[in-house]
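Thread: Modeling a multi-component assembly for a lab meeting

Hi all, long-time lurker, first post. My supervisor asked me to bring a structural picture of a complex we are working on to next week's group meeting, and I have zero experience with this. I have the sequence lines for every component (1760 residues in total). Could someone generate the structure of the whole assembly? Inputs are pasted exactly as I received them:
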Amino acid sequence: MFKKRHPPVGSMPGTLVFGDAAQRPAIRVMKYKPGMLQEIDCENAADAHALLDDETICWIDVHGLGDEKTLREFAELFKITPLALEAVVNVPQRPKVETHDSNLLCITRMMKLTDDRIEPEQVSIFLGSNYVLTFQERPGDVFEPVRERIRMDGPIFRRSGSSYLTYAIIDAVIDAYYPILEHYGYLLETLEDAIVEKPRPALLHEVHGIKRDLLAIRRGIWPQRELINSMIRDEFALVTEHTKLHLRDCYDHAVQIMDAIETFRELCGGLMDVYLSSIGNRQNEVMKVLTIMASIFIPITFLAGIYGMNFEKMPELKNPYGYPTLLAIMAALVSSMLWWFYSKGWLGNRDN
Amino acid sequence: MFKKRHPPVGSMPGTLVFGDAAQRPAIRVMKYKPGMLQEIDCENAADAHALLDDETICWIDVHGLGDEKTLREFAELFKITPLALEAVVNVPQRPKVETHDSNLLCITRMMKLTDDRIEPEQVSIFLGSNYVLTFQERPGDVFEPVRERIRMDGPIFRRSGSSYLTYAIIDAVIDAYYPILEHYGYLLETLEDAIVEKPRPALLHEVHGIKRDLLAIRRGIWPQRELINSMIRDEFALVTEHTKLHLRDCYDHAVQIMDAIETFRELCGGLMDVYLSSIGNRQNEVMKVLTIMASIFIPITFLAGIYGMNFEKMPELKNPYGYPTLLAIMAALVSSMLWWFYSKGWLGNRDN
Amino acid sequence: MFKKRHPPVGSMPGTLVFGDAAQRPAIRVMKYKPGMLQEIDCENAADAHALLDDETICWIDVHGLGDEKTLREFAELFKITPLALEAVVNVPQRPKVETHDSNLLCITRMMKLTDDRIEPEQVSIFLGSNYVLTFQERPGDVFEPVRERIRMDGPIFRRSGSSYLTYAIIDAVIDAYYPILEHYGYLLETLEDAIVEKPRPALLHEVHGIKRDLLAIRRGIWPQRELINSMIRDEFALVTEHTKLHLRDCYDHAVQIMDAIETFRELCGGLMDVYLSSIGNRQNEVMKVLTIMASIFIPITFLAGIYGMNFEKMPELKNPYGYPTLLAIMAALVSSMLWWFYSKGWLGNRDN
Amino acid sequence: MFKKRHPPVGSMPGTLVFGDAAQRPAIRVMKYKPGMLQEIDCENAADAHALLDDETICWIDVHGLGDEKTLREFAELFKITPLALEAVVNVPQRPKVETHDSNLLCITRMMKLTDDRIEPEQVSIFLGSNYVLTFQERPGDVFEPVRERIRMDGPIFRRSGSSYLTYAIIDAVIDAYYPILEHYGYLLETLEDAIVEKPRPALLHEVHGIKRDLLAIRRGIWPQRELINSMIRDEFALVTEHTKLHLRDCYDHAVQIMDAIETFRELCGGLMDVYLSSIGNRQNEVMKVLTIMASIFIPITFLAGIYGMNFEKMPELKNPYGYPTLLAIMAALVSSMLWWFYSKGWLGNRDN
Amino acid sequence: MFKKRHPPVGSMPGTLVFGDAAQRPAIRVMKYKPGMLQEIDCENAADAHALLDDETICWIDVHGLGDEKTLREFAELFKITPLALEAVVNVPQRPKVETHDSNLLCITRMMKLTDDRIEPEQVSIFLGSNYVLTFQERPGDVFEPVRERIRMDGPIFRRSGSSYLTYAIIDAVIDAYYPILEHYGYLLETLEDAIVEKPRPALLHEVHGIKRDLLAIRRGIWPQRELINSMIRDEFALVTEHTKLHLRDCYDHAVQIMDAIETFRELCGGLMDVYLSSIGNRQNEVMKVLTIMASIFIPITFLAGIYGMNFEKMPELKNPYGYPTLLAIMAALVSSMLWWFYSKGWLGNRDN
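Re: Modeling a multi-component assembly
Sure thing. I ran the full set together rather than chain by chain. Output:
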């Protein structure tokens, strides 16, 4: 529910807690300028760093945070301060943007749907003048369309510098929240029908789970809105005006996602109400069956009890019409009871 | 519940997702100056653009977003940037106002009542010095009175430039929320009576639906308030002082609508409480019937059981007054029970 | 629940929707300076306007908004802009203060208690250098004490100019909320006692009604607080420093009223809780009666049933002490049941 | 619940509503400088005013607001404006600080616990260059320690001027909230135990009462926080830097008290939940007793009923082992029922 | 629930309320510069003060606030003002940062988990140019890793001055909240399972307790966030830029902790809902058992009652097939009842 890879309390700032897996980070580089594109898988940080030159933009994409040596190498070559490296490794950090000497660090939170559960992953983006360096926790991301656009060599992308690439990555992260929202929107609609149909604790549990997921999503999107806002408003030398224009659009999307989350959370509250009242109604229904059965049979059972008594002197028992008369009286009692319940609307469907 | 026409995650900014229908956009132009008015249905963007001149104001009203070619033509002729075009096409966008080079873009959300359900539609307004270009998702709008006022040639309208026309359109969008609010106000009053009368899950469902609609309306009106405020406060060259004066009025209306929505939402919460307590009361009523029936008949049935036993030595059975005496005792028991329930107020109406 | 006299959607700004009644507005003028006071009932706007001069203050008080001609006459003579006139006529407007050319317009909302229901009425105040022009929706207001003070010719009032008169009117509007609050405070106290005594849906309905009224009052007082604040802070030429000093006092009252409303609303929520738990308790009480009756009689009825069986070989039936022994056993069973219920505290009063 | 001594609606500002009692105000003066202290009971305002001189500080403490003449005398001698006098007399006012010509007026709200109920009282403090004039509604206050400190002639107090005395008084008012909070903290703990032990409407009523008291306290402390903040931030000539330093401390206490009130209010909400669920549990317990009793005896009573029938041909009745066999079957039925309930956990304690 | 060591109401500011124990404060000093480290246990304040020199940093760590004399000695030697000393001694104070003459005072709140309960303790930090003086309420803290880092003589710590040591202490305080949050996260998960499994008031009580603890933690962390923010933004001469860089990191952690607390609090609210609905479901289950038992046996018991009557003329009784026929009818009745309940889904598991 809440887990943070953090070093022992009071450790030196910059203490790193590396992932469990000794899994080797995969390093993929895209080096491009208008008319040229190279895609290279590097072995280590030094290889990646050697690719940098002033005429091209390099996107160095590192998957996996398990190998301390590689990460420290990157830190040294790309002038990543210890505090910045800590933010990359000790996930999850709150999304934020910070200037660190020669580069700009954006911590973002990517969300993916895996088996109907959201799976958050931190993407740390270092923006330099001629490179973008991204660190992801695990293989698998939502950036394939960004790569496609680089490959397409359209009129804008390859001409627009490293800050535009950074924008494109952040935009992909934000846009990936839309299908998640649609998924939850669909879930909520399905749940509402199911709860009205047949309220079950399992459904409530599911509503509770959705609420928790929405809280997690909100906790992710809220600081990213601030991050984008900060990139627009603050005077970061590396972020061009052209990029800021596009970030405004991205900002609007983040706000729209937050709006939708708030709406969903209110709808969850509403489902809760529907659930409780459905339970109340079902209880009423059970009670009414019991009450009707008992009210009809208790009086006539009493009458049968009366004439089951063994008093020597009970004149009705001798009367040859006693038995049919009693049966008639019982029938009349039952009828009047039924009529009374009918007039109260208790015999109708469960909507009453 | 939540749907957005958005391109695949990470697509190039400016990627457009056009409507399902290949339906041709309808282009209606009103060209006017004091003393002159032309209403023309154009075939394409070029025809509409050809109508512009410096002495008249043109309102170019495009219905339907299904045809990519026409829209790209408009974008080219009216210098609409790719990001702005994306905002027009990938509906719904959050309402906002933005300067794009030579024109001002206002994204508004029009709401109409259709078959008692609200139907939101995005109206995108481009304000240029001598034209207003509006894009609507579908045919059918709330602007007929605006057109009437242009036709009337009153003392103000045709003299007041393109920003006044923009104001008139926004004002019409905002004013269209009033009848919707009245509709929901009426619905809530009706529902309250119905719930007190006879609480049914269907009614609760309806309250839930109203809450959802109110959330959607609020999500529409809130950013439009900001939009209007921004047009008043920010220094947009195209918005005249005269228009700003009128926008202040429009702003007050938006605030008033938001106030009403908040009130309605609180009333929805209150209805929920009334519903739950009504259910509780009905349950109480059912329980009381059961308890009264059982409490009255169980003791006397027991007495009848006693004298139905087959012990050889039960002196009462031989007593000729045994039977009437027992009946009298039973009658006394029933009477005292009834009196007790009456004194507890359980025999009254269901208000107890 | 929500009603606004507004023109058809999209109408020209300044379109007026006059009241249903063709009722003629009553125009009362008080013209005063230190040592002089005239009270005149005018026939029309021109008569009232003719009374203005530079040495006296005129309070022109118009009751009733039904007559378009008179209102348009006032607008012309007192230089009321179309937007301002619209605010006067299309009630209710959100309270606000606005400068319109030569005069200052304050829209206030007066509340009166009529038959225990609050009745809001808009009072629009135009402040000019030598006059105050007020428009009320209906005859009947809370300004009689203000008139009395003008008549008394005290040391301050007649010397203090038109802005002081405006202050006195606003102060009277705000002060009129106090008795309303006291009324609701009294209602809530009465209701709490009644709900604890005997929870009935009718009471809940009343709580719901009070909540709705409080929302309406809050919607009235909140923007009036802003109005007064704006008159204190903003540099309106017509509002003197002396008046601002008094407006600060008035502002404190508005804040105090808002505080009280919030408290009342929280108390309403508390009453709801008390209601629900009272219902729960009553249900418990009913259930306990049923359970005790059933638990005591069901076992002994069973015993009676046993010895009512017709087996040929049941030795107890032949035993002459069988019957009294069984009765003794039954008595013991009943006693132990009663003792058990007593020990659980179920036989006490309904507080258990 | 809400009561304000206010003049008729629309009265002249400055209209005073004096207390019911014609009780004479008590006037106590402490006149001190380092090394000198006089405590004098004055008869009237003139006597008190005559004690002022430039070398000493006078604390003139007036108890009781019932006597108009004395108060008007004070107003005249100490240059109290009509609006300020109104704030003193027409209690309760919202706490605030205001400059009035030559003096500074602080309206504070003192809270005392009397018979476990909070009793608010307004203390109005006029700060002049060489005097502090306080008005209290009733005899009895929380200022005895302040007087003690003046009497002690410590190193700071008598040297620190009139603003320090004002601070000491405000500090005493704020500090007096701590024991009240402790009282409510203790009450809430006791109530929680009592509610879990045995939920009763009376307890709920008490929670409701505490919530109301907390609202009242919050309404008192909140504006006093603003008051102190205003004294620190605004440039009041009479408040020295040394005093401001101490007021910062006082401000922290006010914030801490507000924090605690918010916590208490949330705990009240939690108690409500505990109460409702306790009721639900008790109801469950009652229901289970009923269900177990009924489920065990109803089937065997039915069996007894079968063999109580008078059919001529019922072979079991003739069988000499019929009776013991039936008893054995009944015992088996009861045992299996008990086992079933036990396996469902219904026979355990009420925690199930 | 709420306790503050505060002096009698109205006491002189600076009045100290010392701890109950006459326990002697333990004074531990770490004196270090690059390449040198001394750890000394001092007897009194004078010994500690004598260790200060311009070339080294001294961390003087005082445990225990019970001894007035020692504390006053410290106050005198380290120029601690009476108000600052009061803040140290009269715990708990609201966390804050204040400049007092030559030193900076940070009041922080350290939280430890002891036997699964949080135990708050105030740590007061005085930052001077060449020393850091900390006061703790009790022995035992979370600063051991800080001491280790000083001992390690790493590249940064001993070179970074007294403000860096202050940062390290505050960072240790903040980081110590993470394991507490993890503990509560684990508790909440366990509780949710337990509540769904078997709702018991004891669990609810536990949820209530967690809510209270979370409130306490929030009350601790919220002002510490402000404290750190103030150290970053305000121009405190003693806080270096290098330290501020690290404080930004610390600030992010505080925000992240607050986010998590809010999420936990919402989850607590959700657990409450799950609990209430679980109770409702169990009640339903109990009711269904009762209703099914009663509905099946009441009618056939009635039939048995009929043929237990002693009417002389009941032809069925004579019929040799009467008894088996009746038994067959009863079996049919029971079967149809069971089928009916089955079709309503009442015979399934408790999810219905």
